[in-house]
Amino acid sequence: MNNQDFTTTILVDQTPQEAFDAINNVRGWWSENITGGTEKINDEFTYKAKELHRCTMKLIEVVPDKKIVWLVLDNYFSFVNDQSEWKNTKIIFEISKQGDKTQIRFTHQGLVPGHECFDICQNAWTGYINNSLRDLIAIGKGQPNRKEE
Q: Is residue 38 part of a domain?
């Protein structure tokens, strides 16, 4: 198996445009602790989860209703030794019609088995995509990390 990048796929009843809009509403499914733009090409945003994780993303590809790609510019995990594991990796959302449904294929290109954070990150992404993002698309409300004071 050559491609070991973490990938998960969901199917929803909503349109590709509704899926695209929800993905761009990063505060609605990932975290309310996001600062910066999350919708247009070259937007940059920072995610923060207590003192455990912070990262800065740049939108490097935005194709309405089809594809969104974030480049990880910087990353810090409090629980790993190798702080470079996420740097220069890509977060890819590919949106397509599958019959009467919309498919969202999420890939974290560069998040591979053998990385110190793989198990924790795979588990976290699975929850955010398969539960929170799916709910934001399907019922209009995700379960993002709550705003930290």
A: yes
* Contact between 120 and 79 (Cβ < 8 Å): yes
Q: What is the CA radius of gyration of the chain?
A: 15
Residue with tokens 């220069």: 88
User: Into how many domains does the chain fold?
Assistant: 1
Q: Which range marks the domain in which residue 127 is found?
A: 31-139
Nearest Cα to Cα of residue 71 among 62, 83, 81, 82: 62
pTM of the predicted structure, to 2 decimals: 0.95
List pLDDT tens digits, range 11-63. 999 999 999 999 999 999 999 999 999 999 999 999 998 889 999 999 999 99
Q: What is the DSSP letter of 131?
A: I
106 and 81 in contact (C-beta within 8 Å)? Answer: no
Task: Give the list of residues 6+ apart from residue 6 with CB closer than 8 angstroms, or none.
Answer: 107, 108, 111, 112, 118, 121, 122, 125
CATH number, domain of 101, equals 3.30.530.20
